[in-house]
Amino acid sequence: MTDTQKLFQEKFSKLHPQFEYVLSPLTYIKIGGPAEVFLDLTTREDIIEVIQFCHQHKLKLTVLSGASNVLISSEGLRGIVIRTANEKYGFNPNKIGEKTLISVGAGFKTALFVRQTIDDGFGGLEYFLGVPGRLGGAIYNNAHYLSDLIGKHIHRVEVVSRAGEVRWLTQKECQFDYDTSVFQKTDDVILQAEFTLLPGNKEKSMELVKEATLYRAKTQPIGEPSSGCYFRNTVNTPLLKDRFVQFAERRECPSAFLIDQAGLKGTRAGDIEVSQKHAAFFVNKGQGTSQQVLELAQIVRDRVKQEFGVELQEEVFYLK
Questions:
Q1: pLDDT (tens digit per residue) in 211-222
Q2: CATH no. for residue 200?
Q3: Domain enclosing residue 173, as ranges
Q4: Same domain for 103 and 179?
């Protein structure tokens, strides 16, 4: 046992810490080495206590949510790895106009949360039923379906800082924008959120769910191990607008389109491949490694920059 493992065995035996726990089965791309210490934390209070303890003892801490939009090093992660799995769900008696406030833990699976709101008679989140992972990650990334951002449905978010301070942030303070939020700058850990939702119609909601599901099935490599879109859409440039007039009025140009136009579909580095179905997705065709993902990403970045003069930026977070 390492010193860190002994420390956690003594302090948090009730939380059943696991040592040298292989992380790849938790991730959507099925890549990731062992965590020195891993804890699956199911309550808000346990998350806060562990974070405060790590800060007090100056221990490296990595926080996972659904592990759908991350690439974990095949060499593994030293220090403490926690997964936020708190799934508390409830209604706030206060309302904002006609909107109901719904509180939900960061560990609630995004798709199940959306389905729960539909079953409870609310609308607005239907398009997010197909978003993978858990709500903590969806909020951290400000998950989107086309132009609909999950952040616009949020009233406030409760966080705990790496120093252990707990507070609520308003929607404005969350600084939601396309594929980003303030949490990517502060590294606060999301504990729970309050959503504002209007009454809905279950039948109409399920029609919207079906529409989004069919669109994803048609355009994305559903069922293959992947971390989703590896690259963000790129800011449009005069050169891109002149060359691809269909995107001339858009703020961004789709990264998948540029990768496809560069002839990169099917390109591989070991067992990692640029999806034949959606060029912004990297899929694990077997025993892919994190190094192979990074190698393929560099190939794609270099080719797109050579062809179109733009530098693609990662949407997936690399943890090492």
A1: 999 999 999 999
A2: 3.30.465.10
A3: 89-206
A4: yes
Joined together, the tokens standing for residue 80 give 């403490």
Contact criterion met (CB below 8 Å) for 56 and 47: no
Q: What is the pLDDT of residue 92?
A: 85
Q: pLDDT at position 55, please?
A: 96
How far, CA to CA in Å, does 183 sit from each of 140, 143, 159?
6, 13, 9
Q: Please answer whether residues 65 and 137 qualify as being in contact, where contact means their C-beta atoms are separated by less than 8 angstroms.
A: yes
Q: Which DSSP category does 246 fall into? A: G
| Total length of the chain | 320
Low-confidence ranges of the chain (pLDDT < 50): none
pLDDT, mean over the chain: 96
Q: Tell me, what CATH number does 229's domain have? A: 3.90.78.10
List Cβ neighbours of 158 (8 Å cut-off, separation of 6 or more).
166, 167, 168, 169, 190, 191, 192, 193
Phi, psi of 171 (to 5 degrees): -55, -40
The pLDDT of residue 177: 93
User: How distant, in Å, are the alpha carbons of 109, 165, 176, 186 from that of 182?
Assistant: 22, 16, 7, 6
Angle at 133 between CA 53 and CA 304, to 5 degrees: 105
Q: How many domains does the chain have?
A: 3
- Rounded Cα distance between 105 and 45, Å, is 12
Last residue of a domain, one of 144, 171, 206: 206
Q: Which residue has the tokens 């090093």?
A: 73
Q: What distance in Å separates the CA atoms of residue 30 and residue 11, rounded to the nearest whole number?
A: 31
